[in-house]
Write a structure and sequence with these properties.
Helices cover 48% and strands 11% of the residues. The protein is globular, with a radius of gyration of 33 Å.
Length: 753
C-alpha cells in the first residue's frame, strides 16, 4: 500500500494518518470492519464502523486509480508516446477524471473526420491556422493543400479538414474538458421528453413527458425514474448547459487573435462543442449523475435495511404462527422457543361456514394448550385482519399477545434453497408460516436468509449498480449481526456466515461439527472445527455467544484475548469472575487504569466493564406489542379525518409508506410528515417505527391512501363509492391528472417489481 495515500485519506476524512495506517494494516492482516471497530480501538484511535468502512473504500478506490495509471503508462510506452513531461503529469493526477483527461489526446481512436484529414496531409495547415490566427491568410495557405489525389478537391474542403483537426484537439484538451465539466454541473439541465407514439404505452412516466430540472439538484429518485423511462424506450433524456455559455467559455481558451485565422479557429471550437466535446462531457455527466443517484438510493436502502434488521425481537417464546388465507385456509405452525417446528395444520377461519370456523377455533385452542403457546404471530398479507379478528375472539389468555408480522419476502424464502434444505418434506405454505413465526421471535436471524433486495425496503434497487448495492447491503447485514451477537449453538449457517471472519464455508463447518458432536461447551472448542484456524477464531470469537458455557465470559462480548484481564480483576478483588458478573459493588471497586498495558487501553477496558455489567446484552430495543385499530380492516372502513396507529414499512426520498392494517399501505408525503419543513423523510421516520397518522384522502378505485402526521392536516378526498356502476366506469375512464401522490405511489410500486 502506498503510504502517501494515508495522508490523503486522513485529510479527506479529517482524521490522523496513523489512524489510516493502522486500519490499513489491520485490513491487510485479514481483519473485518466489525472486529476492528469493536476490538482494536486503541490501534485506530476509537474509529467507528462508518470511518473504518470509508477508509477501506477510499483505499480501494486509490488502488484502482493506481492500476489504471499503470495501464495508461504501459500503453503509452508500448506505442512510444511516453515523454518525461507526460509521465510526470500522469503520476501527479489525483483523480480518475484528471488521469483520463491527460490521456485523452493519446487514446487509440477509431477513424474520425480528424484522422481522415490528417491522412490527407492537412495537419500542417491546421497548425498554420492555429498558430497564426492574427497573421495567416487561411485561404491562401489552403491552396497548397488542394490535391485531387488525396481527396482534397477544393480550398473549402482543405479548410474544413483543418477545422476538423482543430476541433478534435479542442475536444481532447484537458483544461477545456475540466472547465466545461464544471459548467455542466453549474448550469446543466436534465431534460426529458416522451418519444413519439409512446405517450399511451408509457403513461406511468407521464410526469416526465416534458420535464426539466438542474442536473446538480435533481433528487436521486427522480433521476433514476427518468433513466428507467429512457431505458424502457419511452423517454428521450439530455443533460445540457446553455449553448451560448459553453461557447463563451471555450472560445477564449483557443481563439487568441482577431484575423481570418482566428475565425477559422472559432468555427472549429463551435463545431467541437456541438459535435464532439459537448456529447463527451454529457456522457460523463450522465455517468456521474447516475453514480450520485445510485449512491443516494443505496444509502436509503441501507438505512431502511438496518432499521428492519434491528427490529425488536420478541425473544425465545413458544409461538403459534399463522399465514392467513381465504379459499385455501390459514396455514398454522407451532414453534418451540428455539424456532423448531413442532406441528403444522390448516384451519378455515375466514370462511362463511360456521361449522368450519368452529372447527378452526377448536383446533387453535387445542394447539395453544398442547404446545404451551406464549404468543401468536399473524402474517400481514391477504386475510390478515380477518384472521386477527378470529384469533382475538377465541378467548385466549390475556398473557398471550396476538401480533401482526410483516411477511414481506416470506414467499421468496419459502421457495428458496435455504427453505428446502431446512424443510425438505414440507410445502411452501408451511415454510412461509414458519418464517412468519421466526420473524417475530428474532427478525435478524430470519431475515438474513433472504436476499436483502427481496425485503421491499429499497428505492429503485433494481436500477442501481448491483455490485455497489450488494457491497453496501452486505456491510449492513454484517454490522447488524455482529453488533447484536450470535448464539453459537442455535444459529443457522446463514446467520453464522455473516459473523466476522467466518463466511459460508466455515459457517457450514460449524453447523456440521455441532450436529455431529452436540452443542459447543466453550468458545475455545471452535478451534476443533475443521479449517477454522487461529485467525478466524480471533475475528469471530467475540461475536459468538454461549449461554450456560463452562466459562462465564463465553456468553458475553468480552473477547477471549481479554479473559486474562478479567481474571486478574477478579483475583485482585479476591472473588471469582462469576462474582464480578453478579455483584455491582465488586465491579465498582475496579480501577481501570491499573490494567492498562501497551496493547490494552482505557477504551477496551471501558468496554469490558460495561459488558461485565450486562453480559451478552441485546442492543436492540425492547419489544413492544402493537395493534391496529379494531374495526378498521379494509379500505372501505377508512374515512378522511380518522386517526390511526400504523407501522412504517418503507422510507423513500419522497415520503414514507405506512401499514395501517387495511392491506394497502398509505403514503405520508414528505410535505405531510411534520409541521416544520422536512427535506429528508429519514430525519424523522425509520422503518418499523410506530406512528399515529391521520387519513387525509382515500381513493378506493385506485387503491391509494394519503396520510399525514401534521397536527392539523388538510382533509381532502372522500372514500364514498360512486352512485352507480356506470358512473364509476365513467370516472375511471376519464383522464386523471397526475399529482404528487399518484407519482409517488407509482414509484413505490415500480420499486417493488
Amino acid at each position: 500500500m502506498n503510504e502517501l495515500y494515508f495522508n490523503r485519506v486522513a485529510g479527506e476524512l479529517k482524521i490522523q494518518p496513523r489512524q489510516v495506517a493502522a486500519t490499513a494494516r489491520l485490513f491487510a492482516e485479514g481483519a473485518t470492519v466489525p472486529f476492528i471497530a469493536r476490538y482494536r480501538k486503541e490501534a485506530t484511535g476509537m474509529l467507528d464502523e462508518v470511518a473504518i468502512t470509508s477508509i477501506r473504500d477510499r483505499l480501494t478506490a486509490l488502488v484502482e486509480l493506481d492500476q489504471r495509471r499503470d495501464a495508461i503508462l504501459k500503453s503509452l510506452e508500448e506505442r512510444k508516446l511516453l515523454t518525461d513531461e507526460l509521465k510526470s503529469a500522469i503520476l501527479k493526477a489525483e483523480t480518475l477524471t484528471a488521469l483520463e483527461d491527460i490521456y485523452q489526446p493519446y487514446r487509440p481512436k477509431r477513424r474520425t473526420r480528424a484522422t481522415i484529414a490528417k491522412e490527407q496531409g492537412l495537419e500542417p495547415l491546421a497548425d498554420l491556422i492555429f498558430k497564426g490566427q492574427s497573421t495567416v491568410n487561411p485561404e491562401s495557405e489552403a491552396q497548397a493543400f488542394v490535391s485531387a489525389e488525396k481527396g482534397v478537391e477544393t480550398v473549402l474542403a482543405a479548410l474544413a479538414g483543418a477545422r476538423d483537426i482543430i476541433a478534435e484537439r479542442v475536444s481532447d484538451d484537458a483544461l477545456a474538458r475540466a472547465k466545461l465539466r464544471d459548467l455542466y454541473w453549474a448550469k446543466g439541465v436534465v431534460r426529458s421528453k416522451v418519444l413519439s407514439d409512446k405517450a399511451e404505452e408509457g403513461i406511468k412516466y407521464k410526469d416526465y413527458f416534458d420535464w426539466s430540472e438542474p442536473a446538480a439538484a435533481i433528487p436521486s429518485h427522480r433521476m433514476l425514474a427518468i433513466r428507467r423511462g429512457e431505458t424502457e424506450g419511452f423517454l428521450m433524456v439530455r443533460i445540457t448547459p446553455p449553448e451560448d455559455d459553453a461557447i463563451a467559455l471555450l472560445e477564449p481558451l483557443f481563439v487568441t487573435g482577431r484575423g481570418p485565422g482566428a475565425e477559422q479557429v472559432r468555427l472549429a471550437v463551435q463545431d467541437s462543442f456541438k459535435r464532439l466535446l459537448g456529447f463527451a462531457i454529457e456522457a460523463e455527466i450522465r455517468i456521474e449523475s447516475k453514480k450520485r443517484a445510485d449512491a443516494e438510493a443505496i444509502r436509503v436502502f441501507s438505512e431502511n435495511l438496518r432499521e428492519l434488521l434491528l427490529t425488536s425481537p420478541l425473544g425465545q417464546k413458544n409461538v403459534l404462527a399463522i399465514d392467513p388465507g381465504f379459499r385455501t385456509g390459514c396455514k398454522v405452525v407451532c414453534l418451540d422457543r428455539q424456532g423448531k417446528m413442532l406441528h403444522h395444520d390448516v384451519v378455515y377461519a375466514t370462511t362463511s361456514s360456521a361449522s368450519q370456523i368452529r372447527e378452526a377455533a377448536e383446533a387453535v385452542r387445542s394447539m395453544v394448550k398442547k404446545y404451551n403457546i406464549e404468543a401468536v404471530a399473524i402474517g400481514n398479507g391477504t386475510a390478515s385482519r380477518e384472521t386477527e379478528t378470529f384469533v382475538r375472539a377465541l378467548g385466549l389468555p390475556s398473557s398471550i399477545p396476538v401480533i401482526m408480522v410483516n411477511e414481506s419476502g416470506a414467499s421468496i424464502y419459502s421457495a428458496s434453497d435455504v427453505a428446502r434444505e431446512e424443510f425438505p418434506d414440507q410445502d411452501v405454505t408451511v415454510r412461509g408460516a414458519v418464517s412468519i413465526g421466526r420473524r417475530l421471535m428474532d427478525p435478524l436471524a430470519e431475515l438474513v436468509k433472504l436476499d436483502p433486495k427481496s425485503i421491499g425496503v429499497g428505492q429503485y434497487q433494481h436500477d442501481v449498480e448491483q455490485n455497489a448495492l450488494k457491497r453496501s447491503l452486505d456491510d449492513v447485514v454484517m454490522s447488524c449481526v455482529n453488533g447484536v451477537g450470535v448464539e453459537l449453538n442455535t444459529a443457522s449457517k446463514q446467520l453464522l456466515s455473516y459473523v466476522s471472519g467466518l463466511g459460508p464455508s466455515l459457517a457450514a463447518s460449524i453447523v456440521a461439527y455441532r450436529n455431529e458432536n452436540g452443542p459447543f461447551k466453550s468458545r475455545a472448542q471452535l478451534l476443533k472445527v475443521p479449517r477454522l484456524g487461529p485467525k478466524a477464531f480471533e475475528q469471530a470469537a467475540g461475536f459468538l455467544r454461549l449461554r450456560d458455557a463452562e466459562h462465564p465470559l463465553d456468553a458475553s462480548a468480552v473477547h477471549p484475548e481479554s479473559y486474562g484481564i478479567v481474571d486478574q480483576m477478579a483475583s485482585d478483588l479476591g472473588c471469582s469472575v462469576k462474582d464480578l458478573l453478579r455483584d455491582p459493588a465488586a465491579r465498582q471497586k475496579i480501577q481501570p487504569t491499573k490494567y492498562v498495558t501497551n496493547t490494552v487501553g482505557l477504551p477496551t477496558l471501558t468496554d469490558i466493564l460495561a459488558e461485565l455489567a450486562k453480559p451478552g446484552r441485546d442492543p436492540r430495543e425492547r419489544f413492544e406489542i402493537f395493534s391496529f385499530k379494531e374495526g378498521v380492516e379494509k379500505m372501505e372502513h377508512l374515512k378522511p379525518g380518522m386517526k390511526l396507529p400504523g407501522i412504517v414499512t418503507n422510507v423513500t426520498a419522497f415520503g414514507a409508506f405506512v401499514d395501517i392494517g387495511v392491506h394497502q399501505d398509505g403514503l405520508i408525503h414528505v410535505s405531510q410528515i411534520s409541521d416544520r419543513f422536512i427535506k429528508n423523510p429519514a430525519e424523522v421516520l425509520k422503518v418499523q417505527q410506530k406512528v399515529m397518522v391521520t387519513v387525509t384522502e382515500v381513493d378506493i378505485p385506485r387503491k391509494r391512501i394519503a396520510l399525514s402526521m401534521k397536527a392539523n392536516p388538510e382533509i381532502g378526498g372522500s372514500s364514498a363509492p360512486q352512485s352507480s356502476p356506470a358512473a364509476r366506469l365513467a370516472k375511471s375512464a376519464a383522464p386523471k391528472p397526475v399529482d404528487w401522490f399518484t407519482a409517488a405511489l407509482q414509484k413505490n410500486n415500480r420499486n417493488q417489481n
